[in-house]
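Protocol step 4 of 6: structure prediction from sequence.
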Amino acid sequence: MQLVCPAGNLPALHAAIDAGADAVYVGFRDQTNARAFPGLNFDEQELREGIAYAHARGRKVYVALNTYPDSARLAHWYAAVDHAAALGVDAIIAAEMAVLDYACRQHPAMARHLSVQGSATTAAALRYAHERFGISRAVLPRVLSLQQVQRLCQASPVPLEVFAFGSLCIMVEGRCQLSSYVTGQSPNRHGVCSPASFVRWEEQDDNSRSVRLNGVLIDRFGATEPAGYPTVCKGRYDVGGEIFHALEEPTSLNTLELLPQLAQAGVVALKVEGRQRGVAYVRTVARVWREAIDRHAGDAAQWRLQEHWQQALSEHAEGQQTTLGPYHRAWH
């Protein structure tokens, strides 16, 4: 199985490749990708350097063009497709049908991967995208059980990629109604959940910190309490006099124990979430998964989950805790 890792900047790309990633996925510095944070992503020179670094080592670079433009801005997404092709990327990852159609017609030799934002959860949906837009791979949404993934692998006309590690979303991929309601900006259209321009941190007299999103108080942290990037879904709220994570407790997807089943099912690529995360995260997670995949490929019958793998991954998980998420669902 191919290991696909995130790269939010050039140092992260180097770290992922050096740690054993078979491919990295990146974004341009605009709203064509779903991690359009300030200071993140690649300008043209950085991406040229990153592609050269990866290709010199036999690895691949995918460009995420996975947001949904409105009709007035569609030409900007078309230009991003042209730019990706001119740079010689190995594939684009897209969800919007007009973007996929344009890439199929204008750059048929450039591989097209259906993004997780495309929400293809049935063989019929995958078949449509393959027949209409010539996709060569699809990334499955993180809402399917292991059994559903196994059945799709048997029926899909294209190879399938699944998320193996990283942050989860309680919404349908990229369609965060919470962030849209509070800020008026859709993550799938504007490229980011909880846009940084709406985030306000406030220091309190007791050295605690409050964080607001567009004026809405979504969390308060103690003086020494670690704080991640503030999102509405992972905030703490007063509900009936009790303050807790009312919507979603910070945790990360970790499917390492399912690696043998995913391999047997025929999954072709395991994807790590986290283009917004730092170099240490990318390096550690890529190294652990590289070792686990290689050991399984070398001797599947003797493969055993190693505790030090899980410990290393937990240290880089949200809230330092992990879950199998929808992969383990008794009522599937």
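Step 5 (inspection) to follow. The chain has a mean pLDDT of 93.
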